[in-house]
């Protein structure tokens, strides 16, 4: 049957219900934002700003974020994501490009390092099989300085607001303001607490805590790695021992994902120098309280050799 121009258009039942819902101002359910976080610290920060987001975390505190396997599960998670939150500055260059290529889909990429000033830049440096973990742009381990987390949080909030429905954007801004206020207070307290650390020497493995050391005024005087990312060798450790024996550092510091044996050997050879194994980041399911607890724990471990 052909409908004439004078005949009313029939409305299907589901359309009438939809129209009634819109007239009554009823909000239809919105699909939660899906976020792929390369490291747990960015997952935690995302939870602070967008607690309703569905999160996948690629790494954990027991993994070296430079080197992980591009597993099929990670490929599927990246493919399903609306946003990928990563560090950048070359930290994930060994695996993220492969994931993105295999995923066959490009979520929006947020790189935290774009929002802060990096230390230890090596302009023009090029990675080779013999150069170790070279980061020409600078040290990518920015999350160990809580002041830089404030800067990243502001950038991440802006990115989340661009992806979320308009009705949800004011809540992101409110959560950001609350986090900034709380975090600034914590930074001031941490700086007062850590005052005894200023000027103390430490031997460390890799630059994992370079920003933490710079913030607290600790002096890295030796690196257990002969080159960044290369495992400590007996010959290099012996050289360090000969150099440090006359004036031992306050502590030997390694990360939770590093082999403790080289640090334990150097610590033992130096006599009273303690070995500190610091957690590289928070747990995969952490949020704001856990970020603060992680930083509390770092300071407590560092202060213990200082007699505090």
From TrEMBL:
<dbReference type="InterPro" id="IPR006127">
    <property type="entry name" value="ZnuA-like"/>
</dbReference>
<dbReference type="Pfam" id="PF01297">
    <property type="entry name" value="ZnuA"/>
</dbReference>
<protein>
    <submittedName>
        <fullName>Zinc/manganese transport system substrate-binding protein</fullName>
    </submittedName>
</protein>
<dbReference type="GO" id="GO:0046872">
    <property type="term" value="F:metal ion binding"/>
</dbReference>
<dbReference type="InterPro" id="IPR050492">
    <property type="entry name" value="Bact_metal-bind_prot9"/>
</dbReference>
<dbReference type="GO" id="GO:0030001">
    <property type="term" value="P:metal ion transport"/>
</dbReference>
């Amino acid at each position: 049957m052909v409908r004439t121009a004078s005949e009313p258009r029939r409305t299907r039942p589901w359309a009438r219900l939809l129209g009634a819902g819109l007239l009554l101002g009823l909000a239809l359910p919105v699909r939660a934002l899906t976020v792929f976080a390369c490291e747990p610290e960015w997952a935690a920060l995302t939870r602070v700003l967008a607690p309703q987001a569905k999160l996948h975390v690629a790494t954990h505190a027991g993994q070296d974020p430079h080197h992980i396997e591009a597993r099929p599960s990670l490929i599927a998670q990246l493919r399903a994501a609306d946003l990928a939150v990563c560090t950048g500055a070359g930290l994930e260059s060994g695996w993220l490009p492969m994931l993105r290529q295999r995923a066959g889909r490009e979520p929006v990429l947020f790189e935290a390092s774009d929002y802060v000033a990096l230390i230890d830049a090596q302009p023009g440096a090029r990675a080779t099989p013999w150069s170790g973990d070279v980061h020409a742009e600078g040290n990518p381990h920015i999350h160990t300085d809580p002041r830089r987390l404030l800067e990243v949080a502001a950038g991440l909030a802006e990115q989340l607001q661009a992806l979320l429905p308009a009705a949800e954007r004011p809540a992101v801004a409110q959560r950001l303001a609350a986090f900034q206020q709380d975090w600034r207070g914590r930074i001031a307290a941490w700086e007062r607490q850590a005052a005894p650390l200023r000027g103390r020497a430490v031997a460390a493995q890799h630059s994992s805590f370079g920003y933490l050391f710079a913030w607290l005024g600790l002096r890295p005087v030796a690196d257990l790695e002969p080159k960044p990312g290369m495992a400590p060798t007996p010959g290099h450790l012996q050289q360090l021992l000969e150099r440090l024996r006359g004036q031992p550092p306050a502590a030997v510091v390694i990360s939770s994902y590093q082999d403790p044996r080289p640090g334990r050997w150097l610590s033992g050879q130096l006599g009273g120098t303690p070995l500190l194994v610091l957690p590289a980041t928070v747990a995969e399911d952490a949020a704001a309280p856990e970020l603060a607890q992680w930083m509390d724990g770092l300071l407590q471990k560092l202060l213990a050799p200082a007699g505090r």
